[in-house]
Design a protein that fits this description.
Helix content is 64%, strand content 3%. The chain is an all-alpha fold. Strands 3-5-4 form a three-stranded mixed sheet, sandwiched between helices. It has a two-stranded antiparallel ribbon with strand order 1-2. Bound molecules: zinc ion.
Length: 633
């Protein structure tokens, strides 16, 4: 329930991945000096605090409220009034946490070189850590009240309604909470449990030495992850790409035994924790927090494995259009055509606003207000954080960071982050603080749905076959990146963890075999798979940092594909009803478990058909791409 926890659960992490896939281009305006950029394109922080003195007062106020909250320890059993008082106190602190945290955080992100701001931001981190420790009594004490008693209190006390979901969810998860001794033992292992992750970080960042290679044009390039990704996207020479891939992936391969030992530790830790808390599998343990049934992941993997035909057709089309004899994995990032068309910010903004017209005038009005209210930091400047994100401040609204560079990708980034921001706007408006935050599991539905609306709008408005092809290429590549690739990753995690659950060894050879097998299953014979790609698992930091996380990219994508279909197809009355359900989903914040929220919107992720909707969408887009390609030539 802390902000640090909430911040982790925002979409920023997901967006970071998507941002990584976008190449960098020259930005508008010409200046990189922040002071020279017009105020309308920069964040206005005054909605949070007028100045640093007010922020200091906010910090002091929060500290006082934290001290008062600590005094409530031991009171919860007294009755519903005491529970209410504690929750309300917690909310007051939570609301302040947003203000006190975001004010320096946002300012740091637009100029990371400012040490004074960075120092203030660090103070907030220390304060939050102190609060977490000081409030650790709260949930265990709450759960000492028998559930039947608590339900009676909830029924008798209307003011507790806002906390009903949160309170009962604590009881739901109680069956996996151990007795005091057990919990103490597990808590003592907390630091130790993070060891595989920190070891991976050291090996893959601090200790790793990336090689340099000489390209065909005589230039030398060091194959750091950033340079490597840029090379694969922009280098038209296949031989260069081949050597870069062999050298870059081979760097990880050279220490694969150590990576395998670390990954084994990750899976062993997960299995230890799952067993300690009485879960039948590691997957069940990972999904418990959001109350997601295991079949969601299993159905996702099975349906996608059976739906790789359009993916392979796309890869074959690319091979043909690029005129390659053999199509390798390292060829998949080069675009077939490049666009010289630019999309200045104002034009991008207008296209994005126009694209969501099907969501109705209320949505449109709020969106327009948001984009003109000093909440979007549009252009790149010296010291500004790269990428894009949307960050909420309860009571104030979302702030959106962009690095708009006039490319087509940047237009989609705006649509994506705008989708997150509007989700936040609607949810903050409709929900009390306790249930205002949505989970990752629904967050990317809002963003990808808006991207889909934008695609539709742009396809309708352009008469240029080349631009249409580029739009389709963008969308298909997104399905490859956020759906097929992520399901393949989830498939890998599932297979490796299952081996550990069965007591079977997880070695380099075993992990290589799983990965090579997946490449064959997903790409078939559409791609020539070089042997070194079997080491790819060692490059995927999500496997080591956040097991069983990536499948959510794919389930969100599937959910939004189905919602989009319902909102834009069929009779008008049905479309209207589907749109209303979708808006209700956006307004529902975190007031229920994500699966239940999606079900109310008409999406059932336990059903194959939901996942199949993405496969069908891919099939339709590739068919259209094949037709457009004929027209471009
Ligand atoms: Zn996102």
């Amino acid at each position: 329930m802390t902000l640090a926890h909430r911040a982790k659960a925002t979409a920023a992490a997901l967006c970071a991945l998507i941002a990584l896939l976008s190449p960098a281009h020259a930005a508008k305006p010409e200046t990189r000096n922040r002071a020279e950029i017009a105020a309308e394109f920069r964040w206005d922080f005054s909605a949070i605090y007028p100045n640093w003195a007010a922020w200091e007062a906010g910090v002091a106020d929060m500290e006082a409220k934290m001290d008062a909250f600590a005094k409530l320890k031991g009171t919860l059993a007294q009755g519903p009034a005491a529970v209410l008082k504690a929750y309300q106190g917690y909310d007051e602190i939570g609301k302040l946490q947003y203000l006190v945290y975001r004010y320096p955080q946002l300012q740091r992100d637009v100029d990371t070189r400012d040490q004074a701001v960075a120092g203030r931001f660090q103070r907030v981190g220390a304060l939050f850590a102190k609060f977490d420790t000081a409030t650790s009594w709260f949930t265990p004490e709450l759960l000492k009240v028998p559930q039947a008693t608590m339900e009676k209190w909830l029924a008798e006390t209307p003011a507790l309604a806002a906390y009903r979901f949160t309170i009962l969810d604590n009881y739901r998860q109680q069956k996996h909470v151990l007795d005091e001794n057990g919990e103490r033992l597990l808590s003592l292992a907390g630091q130790f449990n993070r060891t595989p992750q920190t070891t991976y970080q050291e090996l893959s960042t601090s200790d790793i030495k990336f090689p340099s290679i000489k390209l065909a044009d005589g230039k030398d390039v060091t194959l750091s992850p950033g340079n490597y990704a840029a090379l694969l996207e922009s280098n038209p020479n296949q031989a260069d790409r081949a050597r870069a891939a062999a050298a870059h992936v081979g760097t990880y391969g050279a220490t694969a035994n150590t990576y395998a030992a670390i990954y084994n530790a990750v899976a062993q830790r997960d299995w230890f924790m799952a067993q300690a808390r009485n879960f039948p599998t590691t997957l069940d343990a990972a999904l418990e927090g959001n109350n997601i049934p295991r079949q969601v992941v299993e159905t996702l993997v099975e349906t996608t494995r059976a739906g790789t035909a359009p993916l392979q057709r796309y890869l074959r089309l690319k091979k043909k259009l690029l005129g390659l004899q053999e199509f390798h994995i390292y060829d998949n990032f080069v675009p077939v055509f490049r666009s010289d068309k630019t999309y200045p910010y104002e034009q991008a903004r207008d296209a994005v606003l126009a694209s969501v017209a099907p969501l109705g005038t209320d949505y449109g009005t709020r969106y327009r207000r948001f984009v003109t209210g000093g909440r979007i930091d549009v252009y790149e400047n010296e010291g500004k954080k790269s990428g894009a994100y949307s960050a909420g401040v309860y009571g104030v609204g979302p702030y959106l960071l962009l690095n708009h560079n006039d490319t087509l990708d940047a237009v989609f980034t705006l649509a994506h982050e705008g989708g997150h921001a509007m989700h936040t706007v609607l949810s903050y408006e409709a929900q009390p603080f306790a249930t205002a935050d949505y989970t990752i599991f629904v967050a990317e539905v809002a963003s990808t749905t808006n991207e889909r609306f934008l695609l539709d709008k742009l396809l309708q408005t352009t008469s240029d076959p080349k631009e249409r092809f580029l739009l389709l290429q963008h969308s298909v590549q997104e399905i490859v990146n956020t759906f097929y690739t992520q399901v393949m990753f989830a498939d890998f995690e599932l297979q490796a963890h299952r081996l550990v659950e069965k007591g079977e060894p997880v070695t380099t050879e075993v992990l290589n075999q799983i990965y090579a097998g997946l490449l064959k299953t997903y790409y078939g014979d559409a791609v020539t798979v070089d042997d070194f790609y079997k080491f790819t698992w060692s490059r995927i930091s999500h496997f080591f940092d956040t097991p069983y996380y990536v499948f959510q990219y794919a389930t969100c994508f599937a959910s939004s594909a189905q919602l989009f279909k319902a909102m834009t197809g069929g009779a008008e009355a049905e479309r209207k009803a589907a749109t209303e359900r979708y808006l209700t989903l956006l307004k529902s914040g975190g007031n229920d478990h994500p699966m239940a929220q999606l079900q109310k919107a008409g999406v059932d992720l336990t059903q194959r058909a939901t996942v199949q909707a993405v496969v069908d969408q891919m099939d339709a887009l590739v068919t259209r791409m094949e037709a457009e390609a004929e027209r471009v030539r």
